[in-house]
Design brief:
heterodimer, A: alpha/beta, TIM Barrel, Alpha-Beta Plaits, 2 domains, four-stranded antiparallel beta sheet, 15 helices, B: alpha/beta, Fumarate Reductase Iron-sulfur Protein, Chain B, domain 2, FAD/NAD(P)-binding domain, five-stranded parallel beta sheet, 18 helices, 14 strands, binds flavin-adenine dinucleotide, binds flavin mononucleotide, binds iron/sulfur cluster
Chain lengths: ~475, ~450
């Protein structure tokens, strides 16, 4: 049985799954319910000077039949009285002494920071998370992402906090910045014990086509909000990798962003996170999803022979290189497995219109054929193919050569200006442009409808109201 | 063994004849449309006789453009809603869907099609209108799928169109023949009303064209005449006892059923003669009307039946029993039907042969003959120069629908000998184009 427990920068937790600071951690009632369900920790909904929230405050990106593939909010920090929150933190710790309760904080002045850090420590918090991420509402008041985007200011505030902090301090970073490692380094310089990322991404999830207003709509108007949910995982993973690989950051990382199941969590961990935080998935499906997450993680660790979480933290990092370090001599070519093909021909259109015209249609069969000499091995066809393992990318180089862009640059075997004779292009085969016009002749699209001719459109269509 | 109690009210009738392709709700349509792969050169389009751009309309549904989806459907097929419900989609579009090759349920194209078209019908959204009047007139005989489709297309091209229909309602067998669990009368008639409102052709009901004089009048008043007359009554079997009470033709039985619902009486034990789709329908319908025993009697083996497998499965699912390799020799009874005398058969080298001495009587109190529809050869003989083939089908050019009398065009059952609604809709559109070409080139 693998050991799921962690000691994150001094904060102990029975498993690496924490609820992120958000509506699910708004009250003691919810946090106790979550611990009961199996969550290892909770970062309390951010505490600060009282605010007022609007309604509505959430927007969703629905994709085809999937709801909330992306999610955004224009909510502020906790709008409950500070005293209530402190009392409930104390109560939670009484019932769950071994679970992690982390107080998320956001205030302005040095005095306020000192005061609130002491308050939450007295209430029994196991750690503190500084919210430098909120991309709406608070930043306009000089807090949240306004701080996260100014490494110097961030560092100063971390220093203020460290002056009085007796428990571990995590700095939560905003992704609304071009280089995430800058605020991460500033956090370290300020003396923080750990970082967590990402907070939400400034966004507009959609626009109401009838009301001409962005979602969510408040009395006919809207504003940009913070984006999260499954759709942001790729951005989070990249930022986590950046921080984990930066020699000047070297802090424990709590990974956040798009985690909905054990696989997402493992990905965060393999790129360097040693605890993970979940918000949208818990808001979407409730606390019960933790059962699938812990069970999946446990199964994975058992199968891979990992005994503790730390056996896997950052395991994928050595394989994440800079582009210039990748092997240019490695070649793959698409290969269609005819027995699996269902003849949708999505690969054909994708390669024809979106790649390198390396797939041909054949008379008498709907199974397309790869034109090997044109295939650059881009992978597009295998990504669009709806049948599992129907298009595989097969290695076609000899496996003996290895050459990187970096090596070529150093050996000066590549052009660096247009005036270089060698800059003549890579001789990709491209059909004559006029050939594109001939296509419809041997295809039947868009069907017999066109052959038969369409009826005249309404001549006197009136604007129905 | 009866699964259904005889319905005594309209509600009970609708319960027994519940729609096998019920209407989708918005969520169902969203989920189902999400699955479509948007295949290139999609096989579903090719399998549709009217060539509806299926991936296009499915994607339109998925993006919330249901009106656009209906437009895509109607551009190709004026019986868009009816076809979505009555087409044998299992062997047409849905049968061709690439998901079948992955052993995944194909996209429910038919139901999605009806989802989109019903929404515009109900909202009465104007999608089409007549073309600019070109001063020419065409008479259409028969307001079935062929006649109405032809009328729509001709109106779109600017012709003045008068439709002459023998009965009191439009849509032909769609409302008089198709099984009630496939489509309801209200639904059919709503689509008819919608089309007529869009295109503005005129229909004269209860106006059979029966004589040479009737035809002559049309020939004088119109520039071309379209024959969308379908087929006729059930073929006679020419068996002794066929005249007995409760021995009825399937077409006539179903017509009664479609018009009078639960007020149609059915026997306790019914024998349906035949192995085609109409036989399957008649058997299913008898069972749903509360018959205790329904036997489908066919002169060859099960595999040789003309009906689609799914139609036979549907009949079996409501308790219909098969009796194979038997040929009826007499309808027995005393005034009323009391049974059918059969003789066993064997198929030798593809030929049905009787087994001498194997006669037996299967008792029943109703016989439904689903043994094919007669052709209207007598009526057709009034049209000078009009050729019909040896099976009584109107001979017409495949690309124009023009008959051997250049003024007459034909399509639908009358020409193809009996197929589906979708074939009539597709062929009538071709014929309308043929009429247009004919009338614009002879001038
Ligand atoms: C029992 C049964 C079940 C069927 N089930 C299905 C099904 O589930 N799905 C499917 O797709 N197809 C089904 N079909 C077939 C389908 O109904 C026909 O293929 C289709 O209706 C043919 O259309 P049509 O316009 O050619 O002829 P019809 O629908 O027969 O229309 C002909 C019209 O012309 C009128 N008419 C005829 N002669 C004259 C005249 N001299 N003067 C004026 N009017 C005249 C008739 O009253 C009728 O309204 C079924 C057929 C039958 C018999
Ligand atoms: C494979 C790929 C290659 C791209 N290459 C370029 C590029 O060379 N130059 C550029 O300006 N944008 C490039 N883009 C970005 C696109 O132009 C576009 O800005 C981006 O994909 C967002 O648009 P979309 O998601 O709506 O397609 C590329 C995008 C993709 C997917
Ligand atoms: S995308 Fe896959 S299934 Fe579709 S045609 Fe190509 S290889 Fe076949
Ligand atoms: S890998 Fe790329 S270039 Fe090769 S066939 Fe597939 S889509 Fe075309
Ligand atoms: S074949 Fe099926 S998946 Fe492909 S376009 Fe048609 S309905 Fe969609």
């Amino acid at each position: 049985m693998p050991d799921l427990s962690i000691n994150f920068a001094g904060i102990k937790s029975p498993n690496p799954f924490w609820l992120a600071s958000a509506p699910p951690t708004n009250s003691g009632y919810q946090v106790m319910k979550a611990f009961d369900a199996g969550w290892g920790g909770a970062v309390w909904k951010t505490l600060g000077v009282p605010v007022v929230n609007v309604s509505s405050r959430y927007g969703s990106v629905n994709y085809r039949d999937k709801r909330m593939i992306g999610f955004n909010n224009i909510e502020l920090i906790s709008d409950r009285p500070l005293a209530d929150n402190l009392r409930e933190i104390e109560e939670v710790k009484k019932y769950f002494p071994n679970h992690a309760v982390i107080a998320s904080l956001m205030v302005q002045s040095r005095a306020e920071w000192h005061q609130i850090v002491r308050d939450v420590t007295n209430a029994g918090s196991d750690g503190i998370e500084l919210n430098f991420g909120c991309p709406h509402g608070m930043c306009e008041r000089g807090m949240g992402s306004a701080v996260g985007q100014e490494p110097e200011v961030l560092r100063t505030i971390v220093e203020w906090v460290m002056e009085v902090a007796q428990i571990p301090v995590i700095v939560k970073l905003t992704p609304n910045i071009s280089d995430i490692t800058e605020p991460a380094r500033a956090a370290r310089l300020g003396g923080a014990d750990a970082i967590s990322l990402i907070n939400t991404i400034q966004s507009i999830v959609g626009v109401d086509l009838d009301k001409f207003a962005p979602y969510p709509i408040v009395d006919g108007k809207g504003t940009n909000g913070g984006y999260c949910g499954p759709a942001v995982k790729p951005i989070a993973l990249n930022m986590i990798k950046n921080c984990a690989q930066d020699p000047e950051v070297r802090l424990p990382i709590s990974g956040i962003g798009g985690i909905e199941n054990w696989r997402d969590a493992v990905e965060h961990i393999l790129l360097g996170a040693s605890s993970v935080q979940v918000c949208t998935a818990a808001m979407h499906f409730g606390f019960g999803i933790i059962r699938e997450m812990t069970a999946g993680l446990e199964q994975y660790m058992t199968e891979k022979g990992f005994h503790t979480i730390y056996d896997m933290v950052g395991k994928a990092l050595p394989n994440v290189l800079h582009w210039e370090e990748l092997n240019l001599k490695y070649k793959v070519t698409a290969n269609i497995h005819e027995d699996k093909c269902i003849g949708c021909q999505l690969c054909y259109t994708a390669c024809e219109d979106g790649a390198h015209q390396a797939i041909a249609l054949r008379e008498g069969t709907r199974v397309p054929e790869i034109i090997e000499e044109n295939c650059v091995g881009c992978n597009l066809c295998s990504l669009v193919c709806p049948v599992e393992n129907c298009i595989t990318m097969e290695r076609t180089d000899s496996g003996t050569e290895h050459l990187t862009w970096k090596e070529r640059t150093e050996a000066e075997t590549i052009p660096t200006t247009f005036n270089d004779d060698r800059a003549g292009g890579l001789h990709h085969w491209v059909p004559e442009p006029t050939a594109a016009l001939g296509k419809e002749k041997h295809k039947t699209l868009p069907g017999k409808a066109r052959q038969l001719g369409n009826p005249a459109p309404a001549t006197d269509v009136v604007n129905e109201s | 063994m009866a699964e259904y109690l005889p319905p005594t009210t309209e509600q009970e009738f609708h319960a027994n004849f519940a729609q096998i392709k019920p209407r989708m709700n918005n969520t169902e349509a969203l989920y189902e449309s999400s699955r479509c792969l948007f295949c290139f050169d999609a096989p579903c389009i090719k399998a549709c006789p009217t060539g509806i751009d299926i991936p296009q309309f499915i994607r339109q549904i998925n993006t919330g453009n249901v009106t656009g989806a209906a437009l895509t459907i109607y551009e190709a097929n004026y019986f868009g809603n009816a076809c979505g419900k009555v087409c044998p989609t299992e062997v047409l579009c849905e049968g061709a869907c690439v998901y079948n090759l992955q052993d995944v349920k194909p996209i429910e194209i038919g139901r999605l099609q009806s989802f989109a078209t019903r929404q515009v019908i109900e909202s009465d959204r104007k999608l089409f209108g007549p073309g600019l009047t070109n001063g020419r007139k065409v008479a259409v005989i028969g307001a079935g799928p062929a006649g109405i489709s032809c009328a729509c297309e001709l109106r779109a091209l600017g012709y003045e169109v008068d439709v002459f229909e023998a009965r009191s309602q439009p849509s032909g067998l769609t409302v008089y023949g198709v099984a009630p669990y496939k489509i309801t009368n209200e639904e059919v008639l709503a689509e008819m009303a919608y089309l007529q409102a869009q295109f503005g052709y005129r229909v004269q009901y209860n106006s059979p064209i029966t004589t040479r004089e009737d035809l002559q009048a049309l020939e004088e008043a119109y520039d071309a005449i379209f024959l969308g007359i379908g087929l006729g009554k059930t073929n006679a079997l020419l068996l002794p006892g066929e005249e007995r009470e409760n021995c009825v033709g399937a077409v006539e039985f179903i017509e009664q059923l479609r018009q009078h619902h639960h007020r149609v009486a059915v026997g306790r034990k019914v024998i349906v003669l035949g192995g085609g789709n109409t036989a399957m329908d008649a058997a299913s319908e008898s069972s749903r009307l509360g018959a205790e025993n329904v036997i489908l009697a066919y002169r060859r083996g099960k595999e040789e039946m003309g009906a689609y497998d799914f139609e036979y499965d549907l009949a079996k699912s409501v308790g219909v029993k098969g009796l194979f390799n038997v040929a009826p020799v007499e309808i027995v009874g005393n005034g009323k039907v009391e049974g059918v005398k059969f003789i066993r058969t064997a198929t030798v080298d593809g030929q049905v042969q009787i087994v001498p001495g194997s006669e037996f009587v299967e008792p029943c109190d109703m016989v439904i003959k689903a043994t094919g529809q007669a052709k209207q050869t007598h009526f057709l003989s009034y049209i000078p120069g009009l050729q019909v083939d040896s099976k009584g089908r109107v001979v017409a050019d495949a690309y124009t629908g023009q008959t051997t009398n250049p003024k007459y065009f034909a399509s639908g059952d009358a020409r193809n000998g009996g197929a589906e609604v979708v074939n009539a809709a597709a062929e009538a559109k071709v014929a309308a184009r043929g009429i247009h070409t004919y009338l614009t080139s002879t001038n």
